[in-house]
């Protein structure tokens, strides 16, 4: 693909597949590695996806407060590290856009990105504080938005069971989780002891003891992240350059970007590209673009996780 295509449109709060993009995906016979990115709007998600594509431009970037990406955009490229494998990058609409003001629609977009991907990158700004975790409260809604359906029972006379998936069932389908914290300026240190980026994330996700309402509220998002994403990684990226130039990073030469930012961005790309494996079915078979296209088009495979239309009209 010379440029990304919109895979899932988002118009008036209704998500729908774009037939043109689906047709492109169904032509991919190779196994697919799918990397999706999600996070608050105007935080530089598209820039990171262009870095994964090893391109200066591709997914649109914008210097203004207006959100650029709507729905979910797809870019299929040969995997730079694995011959015979297709890299599928999914750039999603930013969460919390004040002009949209629809948290239920945000939850659907996040859920679709999660289910379609082998690795889900969550991109945020500043630090992993309580506000950042509140943006991720939608992970606590996943049990309401997703059910596991056993395809072996379809076509039989028995009534198909669609009980809400338990945490252990979610893990079978969920991707690896990578949290990227942009414009990070703090020292990774606890007292006098330096800590790694992963230790920083794990400290933030530590649970409080107790059973009161405040404790349950504090632990809710943290517990879901710990249970749903047992494989998780953290990267912190310093500011790339001066604030006046940040909005037009794709127009600047590499030499204009801060060396530490480039180093961290390269480590992020190397990790994602080397550690993300092709999307697989429950029986271990690698999923091709054709198989993924059939799933997205509505055909059900064995043990496929279904998105259910329960709380909003944003389901596919």
What can you tell me about this protein's structure?
GO terms for molecular function: GTP binding; GTPase activity. This is GB1/RHD3-type G domain-containing protein. It comes from Bambusicola thoracicus. With 316 residues, the chain is of the alpha/beta class. It has a single domain (5-149, 163-312), classed as 3-Layer(aba) Sandwich (Rossmann fold). It has helices at residues 19-26, 45-52, 103-116, 130-135, 142-145, 167-173, 197-204, 213-228, 259-275, 289-297, and strands at 5-11, 14-17, 32-38, 72-78, 86-92, 119-125, 146-148, 176-182, 189-190, 193-194, 232-236, 305-307. The strands form 3 sheets. Strands 2-1-4-5-3-6-8-11 form an 8-stranded mixed β-sheet, with helices on both faces. Helix 1 packs antiparallel against helix 10. The radius of gyration is 19 Å and the shape is globular. The model is unreliable at 62-67, 151-165, 243-247 and 298-316 (pLDDT under 50).
How are the secondary structure elements laid out?
Layout: E1 5-11, E2 14-17, H1 19-26, E3 32-38, H2 45-52, E4 72-78, E5 86-92, H3 103-116, E6 119-125, H4 130-135, H5 142-145, E7 146-148, H6 167-173, E8 176-182, E9 189-190, E10 193-194, H7 197-204, H8 213-228, E11 232-236, H9 259-275, H10 289-297, E12 305-307
Parallel strand pairs: 3-5, 3-6, 6-8, 8-11
Antiparallel strand pairs: 1-2, 1-4, 4-5, 7-12, 9-10
Helix pairs in contact: 1-10
Protein name: GB1/RHD3-type G domain-containing protein
InterPro entries: G_GB1_RHD3_dom, Guanylate-bd_N, P-loop_NTPase
Pfam family, one: GBP
């Amino acid at each position: 693909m010379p440029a990304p295509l919109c895979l899932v449109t988002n118009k008036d709060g209704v998500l729908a597949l774009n037939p043109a993009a689906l047709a492109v995906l169904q032509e991919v016979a190779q196994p697919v590695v799918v990397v999706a990115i999600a996070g608050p709007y105007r935080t530089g998600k598209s820039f990171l996806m262009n870095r994964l594509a090893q391109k200066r431009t591709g997914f649109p970037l914008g210097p203004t407060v207006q959100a650029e990406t709507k729905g979910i955009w797809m870019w299929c490229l040969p995997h730079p590290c694995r011959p015979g494998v297709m890299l599928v990058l999914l750039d999603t609409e930013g969460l919390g856009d004040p002009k949209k003001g629809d948290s239920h629609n945000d939850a659907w977009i996040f859920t679709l990105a999660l289910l379609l991907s082998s690795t889900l990158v969550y991109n945020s700004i500043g630090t992993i504080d309580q506000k950042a975790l509140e943006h991720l409260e939608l992970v606590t809604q996943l049990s309401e938005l997703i059910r596991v359906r056993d395809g072996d029972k379809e076509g039989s006379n028995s009534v198909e069971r669609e009980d809400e998936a338990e945490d252990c069932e979610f893990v079978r389908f969920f991707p690896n989780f990578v949290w990227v914290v942009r414009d990070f300026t703090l020292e990774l240190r606890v007292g006098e002891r330096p800590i790694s980026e992963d230790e920083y994330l794990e400290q933030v996700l530590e649970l409080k003891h107790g059973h009161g309402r405040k404790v349950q509220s504090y632990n809710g998002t943290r517990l879901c992240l710990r249970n749903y994403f047992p494989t998780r990684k953290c990267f912190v990226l310093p500011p790339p350059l001066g604030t006046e130039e940040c909005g037009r990073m794709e127009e600047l030469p590499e030499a204009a970007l801060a060396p530490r930012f480039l180093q961290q961005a390269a480590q992020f790309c190397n990790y994602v590209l080397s550690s993300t494996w092709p999307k697989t079915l429950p029986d271990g078979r690698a999923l091709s673009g054709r198989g993924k296209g059939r799933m997205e088009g509505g055909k059900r495979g064995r043990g496929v996780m279904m998105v259910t239309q329960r709380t909003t009209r944003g389901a596919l």
